[in-house]
Specification:
single chain, 776 residues, 5-stranded mixed beta sheet, 3-stranded antiparallel beta sheet, 31 helices
Length: 776
């Protein structure tokens, strides 16, 4: 028996399987030993090392400094608020875009349903024709397109990309490869068929894209949340928190928003804050070279965009804090660590007296309105070029009526809306008849008459000019204006008005300035005549829905009395631009007052302001300084704007209305406009005359009203002429009476060289003394 056992052991040991088994046992033992070391002996150490590899620092922004006026009145401050945010913590799979878009769409409905607004600052907006339009132009537009398309430089853009319409760029952003905004239809394979941009209105698409684009800017650091809406009310907070379990990545956080004094007179001085742009990021960090990390700017920072907020950005911006966080491989925060609290920015005290500022703004508006009212005349035909004096210029009432359309006080799209009033509908019906007549005339002119531009009447010239401008500016995918050769003979003649529009358009087709592919003509039309027909048809289709062209039509409808003042007055009430007080409309309808008198009273009462009309004059400025200290105590620019609607979350519709407002409310007339100083400069001229010895303190000059020593054909006049003259005045009397004639003579004498008049000599002498006064 022992022999049998021995034989079996020998057989096993000499077998190949034995050696294999030994090797497997040894390897398994090594594996167990390594697992024991990794998990038991060094498990904690390896876990810490793993955690360190995904350690991140979250930047905490400090509050901006408060701005006060000279009396300690708060003009701008940070206010505690709640913001709705979203993080991209979605799994990367086939339904990521669908899931994220569904969440954002639901979130938008919650936010707007409770009366709050989205943080949708984006470089594309919807114009009055509900078409996507760029909010920037020139190099800023190219930079934006390059960023969207993922190009490092604008020079890398192809020509077709440089001319890409906003609608095409939006279509690209909605594509499956980018944000996948559209309809997802289940198919037989268990997946989805995607149709871009379907199932949403243009307004909804714009909101979705703007939020997704903002999120994409943080794609490399997903733990940083994107603000969807700032300063939301309690109802929004409650509804978001109630539905948070179904709103993946959505949260409500404490935040600060910038709040300004409710006073338009302060808007230009204070300016407003907004999210930093990439250009500002580079510029501000370059100016902070050598500063600590806490002074550097990051992409989500709020910075001053204009006014004191921009000029004193470095003082107002606080120092950043930081918080150590740990995130997993999906960018989700798993643990928080050490925190360094941020520091608030410095407070600023201005020399401005806000009470005086407010009063001056109102007085300035009243003064401008008074000038407009004094110039109003109930006439139609008037040529201002025939007047040789600004004092005699008038404002025809028809210009007032048209300005209400031209400056968007009266909404043209609303005339055809379902909520249009009785007078709106009547005017719109008349407009449609006129529009078809105009299009018919344009069609006949382009195809048959072919009249030279300069030989057309004023109205037809206006229409043809607008058509060309519209094609080149609004439809670069059709008319590639940057391809036009300025040396082309046909182009030169067209610019000079020596050719019919037909010849110019045909030349544009022949030279390839018209993209026939986007006309749909490449396959359907075989020759240049048929391509021209397609271009004319395309143009006529576009002008039918173009608000700018509609304004041209309304201008001549008013001139031809196809629309009257009574109708326009009623439309202002139907569109709620005016409120009927004391039965004013009843007096108008009864004939007690005419439309002219009615509108004049509305202007007098400032129910309609000079800024709304945007007729000259519609703007002004006032600067008041303390003569003892030189401090500026009031600096007013009219018209102004509401900087609270631009700060933090920009109101895109409001901002766009400001950019197209013809009174230029964003422009600071007090500090940016170059304006002749007028009579306030006369003390400088007096000093130059006395110091240069061309006049003496006792010398008297006889003011006769008209100064004809230089140009008898168009002589300048004293302000008092023709109602009188100042007679003989010394320099004190000349300053006291602000006599233009006296200072014309002083300027003339300063310009004499060896008995000959040289204006450059006089100007250089006056500039010398202006410099000594610190006014150069």
């Amino acid at each position: 028996m022992l022999g049998n056992i021995r034989d079996k052991l020998v057989l096993i040991v000499t077998s190949r399987l034995f050696y294999v088994a030994v090797v497997l046992v040894i390897l398994f033992s090594i594996l167990v030993q390594r697992l024991f070391v990794l998990q038991i002996i060094r498990g904690e150490s390896y876990n810490e090392n793993f955690t360190l590899r995904i350690k991140r620092e979250k930047i905490l922004s400090g509050t901006r400094g408060t701005i006060f006026d000279r009396n300690g009145v708060i003009l701008a401050e940070d206010k505690l608020a709640y913001s709705v945010t979203i993080e991209d913590n979605y799994d990367s799979n086939d339904t990521k875009n669908k899931d994220m878009n569904d969440t954002i769409y639901r979130l938008i409905r919650i936010i707007e349903g409770n009366g709050d607004k989205l943080d949708t600052e984006f470089n594309i907006y919807l114009d009055e024709n509900d078409e996507f339009t760029y909010a920037v132009s020139g190099r800023s537009k190219l930079r934006f397109i390059a960023d969207v398309l993922g190009q490092n430089s604008t020079e890398d853009l192809l020509l077709k990309e440089q001319n890409m319409p906003a609608s095409d760029l939006m279509e690209y952003l909605c594509s499956k490869e980018r944000f996948g905004i559209g309809s997802y239809i289940e198919n037989a394979r268990g997946g989805y068929d995607f149709i871009p941009m379907e199932g949403y209105t243009n307004t909804e698409i714009l909101k979705l894209v703007s939020i997704r684009y903002a999120m994409s800017l943080n794609s490399y650091q997903k733990f940083i949340a994107t603000i969807v809406a700032a300063d939301v009310n309690e109802r929004t907070v409650a509804e978001v928190m109630e539905n948070k379990i179904d709103l993946q990545g959505v949260d409500v956080v404490e935040d600060t928003v910038r709040e300004y004094i409710n006073d338009p007179s302060m808007s230009h001085i204070l300016g407003y804050t907004g999210k930093i742009s990439e250009e500002e990021l580079v510029q501000l960090n370059a100016s902070s070279s050598g500063a600590s990390e806490a002074d550097n700017y990051i992409l989500n920072d709020m910075v001053g965009k204009s006014g004191i907020e921009q000029v004193e950005e470095k003082k107002l911006q606080g120092k950043k804090g930081k918080q150590t966080i740990f995130v997993d491989n999906l960018g989700r925060v798993t643990e928080t660590g050490e925190t360094v609290d941020p520091q608030a920015g410095s407070n600023l005290y201005l020399t401005i007296d806000s009470n005086l500022q407010r009063v001056v703004y109102k007085l300035l508006e009243q003064k401008i309105a008074g000038i407009v009212v004094s110039k109003l005349r109930d006439v139609k035909d008037y040529d201002p070029e025939e007047e040789n004096s600004a004092a005699n210029i008038i404002i025809p009432m028809d210009d007032v009526y048209f300005s209400l359309f031209d400056n968007n006080v009266i909404s043209i799209p609303h005339l055809s809306s379902s909520g249009a009033g009785v007078y709106e509908k009547k005017v719109h019906e008349a407009y449609l008849v006129k529009l078809e007549s105009v299009i018919s005339l344009l069609d006949e002119e382009l195809k048959n008459n072919k009249t030279v531009y300069n030989e057309l009447d004023e109205e037809m010239r206006k229409y043809e000019t607008y058509v060309v401008t519209m094609l080149q500016n609004q439809y670069p995918e059709i008319f590639m204006a940057n391809e036009v050769d300025p040396g082309n003979e046909i182009y030169i003649k067209w610019k000079a008005g020596e050719l019919p529009l037909t010849d110019y358009l045909r030349e544009a087709i022949a030279r390839g300035w018209i993209n026939i592919n986007n006309l749909g003509a490449a396959e359907q039309y075989l020759n240049s005549d048929e391509i021209f027909e397609a271009l004319v048809s395309y143009t006529e289709e576009k002008v039918r829905s173009d608000t700018g062209f509609a304004k041209c039509v309304f201008e001549y409808m008013i001139k031809d009395s196809e629309i009257n003042g009574n109708q326009i007055c009623h439309i202002l009430y139907e569109q709620e631009k005016l409120i009927d007080k004391d039965n004013q409309l009843g007096r108008l309808d009864s004939g007690e007052v005419t439309a002219f008198e009615f509108m004049k009273q509305r202007l007098t009462n400032l129910e309609i302001t000079p800024a709304q009309l945007a007729l000259d004059p519609c703007s002004g400025s006032t600067v008041i300084t303390d003569v003892k200290t030189g401090e500026v105590i009031a600096c007013v620019s009219y018209p102004s704007y509401d900087n609270n609607r631009l700060a933090n979350t920009i109101d895109a519709d409001y901002y766009n209305s400001l950019t197209i407002d013809k009174s230029l409310p964003l422009y600071d007339y007090a500090t940016q406009q170059k304006t002749a100083p007028g009579s306030t400069f006369k003390p400088v001229t007096s000093t130059a005359g006395l110091e240069e010895g061309v006049i003496s303190t006792g010398e008297r000059i006889n003011c006769v009203g008209v100064y004809d020593r230089i140009d008898p054909t168009r002589p300048p006049k004293c302000w008092i002429y023709p109602n009188g003259t100042h007679g003989e005045l010394d320099i004190v009397g000349a300053i006291e009476n602000s006599c233009n004639y006296f200072f014309y003579e002083v300027g003339y004498r300063l310009s004499l060289t060896a008995g000959y008049y040289n204006s450059d000599v006089g100007i250089s002498k006056i500039a010398k003394y202006a410099d000594l006064y610190g006014l150069s």
